[in-house]
From TrEMBL, chain A:
SUPFAM superfamilies: P-loop containing nucleoside triphosphate hydrolases. This is ABC transporter ATP-binding protein. Pfam families: ABC_tran (PF00005), BCA_ABC_TP_C (PF12399). It comes from Roseomonas indoligenes. Residues 6-253 form the ABC transporter domain.
Length: 263, 347
């Protein structure tokens, strides 16, 4: 069997004196869409922070493509091909939408100080290439018509989509999306879901934290349920929906996704 | 401004500035413009840090002063004891060596400060930069063997340039010095422009706008902030060197807080984070004191600057240049709006 793309093993994260994640173990295989769900305060975002280097776990191991990435900086982890988006809308507000996309392609560029000073042919070629890619990315997420606008002048839903585009721009191997559908209306959520499917079809593995159960159940290959800092279930959506412990912990009785059936 | 028009305007402005000695051969005007030009170079370098990376360095005069001292000492030569009975001795070097050592020494200290200070950000960075300038001032005051302390370094040679057909010429006339400063200012402007418009510049702006997001797309914070500090310090050092060989006397006052404040005011009023901001702000605050000298007493002038600053920050918080370009862009947006609205309606 091949090595899973992401392995999280017995991770414990403490914030101050509080244990936010007590014993977290799960994995993500290449090509999967995996959802990490759980009630508010279950430790989902903390788990994301621990995986992407924004917080250092107290115990445990995080392996990306077989390599231990604990202790690496977020920028090093991004360079390895593991990029995240953020729960709160996160864009470069004062820059144009196009410059946002161009900046997100940072890892695709190589040129340094000398190239910039002298406008070397290699640097110019790279710049033209990146500009093309940035535009293609905006086209991909349906923001090409907004390229010249300041990013903070976009509508909320568009800002969220730009946030995903920024994380996906440099074509990471694993994309971590923190509540991509938060605050979106049903049609925007549908667009968001389509976008995630497209990203997977491009070969990006996706791990997402999400509260919209209908979306989670429809989009995920596998669902990992976190409650009070530990994993209580891990399996395909059908199994999770029926899991008695999940139902008890998460929704207090009603079967998961049921109340969203109409949406 | 359009991509074609902006450089054209820039180069015609540079050409207009270059023709000043022909059109107005007034030595006093040239002297005022020359010292304003030196501070504009300092402001351009400060803008790279303050405007693009968003880091306020309140010790920028440190790099300016370091450049001035490095250049002066290299051209005057020195012979000092460095302990253990050893002596460090340097024979007087040509002025261009002085200029280069100013850039290198200031750049090195910029690297050091960047490594140290970017571990602490925000207010702590501001405090460290202030201390840095104060420490250098203390050193220059007390290391009399090297710097002459408060007695000042005197007899600094004027700038010399190799000119085709004439060999090495000392630039002693006002127009020659003026052109030299103008040339370095144009170079500094171009260096900053090239950086800002490159991948590096985008990384710097990304760190200013949203550091967490910037790191998540793989931008190495320390790396890029150190690049910005080194380049910024190097340019400030070049300005210091020009100052040393123009005034030809240097004392520890070059490290004074007021020089930093002058540069900060130039950048902020002109528009931080814009290429032309420090030039516009620098021209205003570089020329105003001398123009008003006949009209108002210095005390009244300082009060007037204070008022002008307050009014500017209140009404043009982003500075003169962004307000101006915003006005132009706003007008165009109003013209374009109906067409865009029609397109949206058709979709």
């Amino acid at each position: 069997m091949t090595v899973p793309l992401l392995q999280v093993e017995h991770v414990m994260v403490q914030i101050g004196g509080l244990v936010a994640v007590s014993d977290l173990s799960f994995m993500v295989n290449e090509g999967e869409v995996v959802s990490l769900i759980g009630p508010n305060g279950a430790g989902k975002t903390t788990a994301f922070n621990a995986i992407t280097g924004y917080m250092r776990p107290r115990r445990g191991a995080v392996r990306f493509a077989g390599r231990d990435i604990i202790g690496l900086s977020p920028e090093r982890i991004a360079a390895l091909g593991l990029v995240r988006s953020f729960q709160r809308t996160s864009i470069f507000g004062a820059c144009t939408v196009f410059d946002n996309a161009l900046t997100a392609l940072h890892l695709r560029g190589r040129s340094g100080l000398l190239g910039a000073f002298l406008a070397l042919p290699g640097t110019r070629r790279e710049e033209a290439l990146l500009r093309g890619e940035a535009m293609a990315m905006l086209d991909f997420v349906g923001l090409a018509a907004r390229a010249g606008l300041r990013a903070d002048s976009l509508a909320y839903g568009e800002q969220r989509r730009l946030g995903i585009a920024l994380a996906a721009a440099a074509t990471p191997r694993l994309l971590l999306l923190d509540e991509p559908a938060a605050g979106l209306n049903p049609s925007e959520t549908a667009e968001c879901m389509a976008l995630i499917r497209q990203l997977r079809d491009r070969g990006t593995t996706v791990l997402l934290v999400e509260h919209d159960m209908a979306m989670v159940m429809r989009i995920s290959d596998r669902v990992v349920v976190l409650n009070q800092g530990r994993i209580i279930a891990d399996g395909p959506p059908e199994t999770i929906r029926q899991d008695p412990e999940v139902i008890r912990a998460y929704l207090g009785g009603a079967p998961l996704g049921g109340h969203h059936a109409a949406a | 401004m359009s991509a074609v028009l902006a450089p054209l305007l820039g180069w015609s402005f540079a050409a207009a500035m270059a023709s000043v000695p022909f059109l107005f051969p007034d030595p006093y005007l040239l002297a005022v413009l020359t010292s304003a030009g030196i501070f504009i170079i300092g402001a351009i370098s400060l803008n790279l840090l303050l405007g693009y990376t968003g880091q306020l360095s309140l010790g920028h005069a440190a790099f300016f002063g370091l450049g001035a001292y490095a250049s002066a000492l290299a051209t005057l030569g020195f012979d000092i004891a460095i302990g253990f009975g050893l002596r460090l001795r340097l024979d007087p070097q040509p002025v261009w060596v002085g200029f280069l050592s100013a850039v290198v020494v200031a750049g090195l200290f910029g690297w050091l400060l960047g490594r140290l200070a970017f571990r602490v950000r925000g207010a702590y960075f501001v405090i460290i930069t202030i201390c840095f300038a104060q420490v250098l001032r203390m050193v220059s005051l007390n290391w009399v063997e090297l710097t002459q302390g408060p007695m000042a370094l005197t007899g600094i040679p004027p700038f010399a340039l190799w000119l085709p057909g004439q060999g090495v010429v000392e630039l002693t006339s006002k127009p020659q010095t003026y052109w030299l400063v103008l040339g370095v200012a144009v170079l500094a402007f171009l260096i900053v422009r090239q950086i800002v418009r490159s991948r590096i510049g985008r990384a710097l702006v990304a760190l200013r706008e949203n550091e967490t997001l910037a790191r998540s797309v793989g931008i190495r914070v320390t790396h890029y902030l150190v690049i910005a500090t080194v380049v910024s310090a190097g340019i400030a050092g070049a300005a210091g060197s020009l100052f040393a060989h123009y005034v030809r006397i240097i004392d520890p006052d070059v490290f004074l807080f007021i020089y930093t404040v002058t540069m900060v005011i130039m950048v902020v009023t002109g528009g931080k984070g814009t290429l032309w901001g420090p030039v516009v702000g620098g021209l205003i605050f570089g020329l105003l004191p001398d123009m008003l000298r006949g009209a108002a007493r210095p005390e009244a002038q300082w009060i007037a600057y204070g008022l002008a600053m307050i009014l500017l920050v209140m009404f043009l918080p982003r500075g003169i240049v962004p307000a101006f370009t915003g006005l132009l862009a706003g007008r165009r947006a109003r013209v374009v709006l109906p067409a865009a609205a029609a397109r949206e309606a058709a979709e």
